[in-house]
Specification:
Strand order of the largest sheet: 3-4-5-10-7-6
Shape: flat
Order of helices and strands: HEEEHEEEEEEEEHEEHEEEEEEEEHHEE
Helix content: 10-25%
Number of domains: 3
Structural class: alpha+beta
Largest sheet: 6 strands, antiparallel, barrel
Radius of gyration: 34 Å
Length: about 375
Amino acid sequence: MFRSKLYILTLITTCIFSAFTPVQGSITTRIKDIANVQGVRDNYLFGYGLVIGLQGSGDKQTFAFTKQLAKNVFEKLGVIVTAANFNSKNVAGVLITANIRPFAKSGDRMDVLVSSIGDAKSLEGGVLVHTTLQGVDNEVYAVAQGPLSLGGGYNVGGKAADQRKNIATTANIPGGAMVEKEIPVHLFHENSIRLTLKDTDFTTATRLMDVVNAIYPDSALAVSAAEIEIKPPPAYRTMKMVTQFISIIEELPITPDAIARVVINERTGTIVAGENVKISTVAVAHGNLTITISEKTEASQPGSFAPGSATTKELDRTTIDVEEEEAKLHIIPDGVSISEIARALNVLGVTPRDLMAIFQAIHKAGALHAELIIM
């Protein structure tokens, strides 16, 4: 029953706001695609440990960290050993990192990334020993252990040559960590939730506020260009009902606004322009200049009545040809869209490299009404 009511409510809302916040040529999307709920976030965990079972590709004896770590591990097992007499090359000191998702419960599994911190040549075939993973608050939230997977990487060689595929000093353990402690998620802040825009924009924040207020009057307030505070109705102010309320809010349609930008990647020759890019009336001329220089050697022989001392000589001949295509002046009218700009520039037959120079020149002339980003 609740699902059917939610579907009908979303359908009605879509019909209402199809005429409420449209912008010509813009795309309507869901709130969940442009905003995050504050308090619902991933957290990073880290720890350091020991990888064993390597085939002589572990840390060298000069790396004291691995010796000390191995000594500590064996002492926990009741084995008395000193760092000085630990001479194995089958172990490596590693740093373990993981990303724990929000609402993860005790017993859940997550992937971990294992990276060598010593001078080990390869972690192939290694096994991570029981390692605790902690957060920025130094609290332990997970425990990692298991065999490493390099994904086809290896690093082998001898005295005169070696061969490597991928990176052999970094490995993964799929599902190698188990959550031991939940990270609390705080959704309510003084009986309200807050949404954070992924792309900060005052117009988008105001539109989001208006969309929510149309369903729940006077419940939303755009605090800034990035935050929108929403106070749920009293019936939704419990942890059991706030999930349903957030679900309704996330499905509401909205037309986000965006700053007009032209992004140019000079390394790859890629140009990406937003739909809001406008250009004032400007004249563009484009033509190619081709210069061809050819060198050849000719033999100069003495004539019939030349003196006896005359000899054959080699002479250098240089030919220079200059060919310049006719540069036509094209007028791009004021306020055209990006599709019309592309069509006008394609008439010139320009390449992506030429388009970069043209966009930069138009920007320098003050006729490009957009932010120009050069990567």
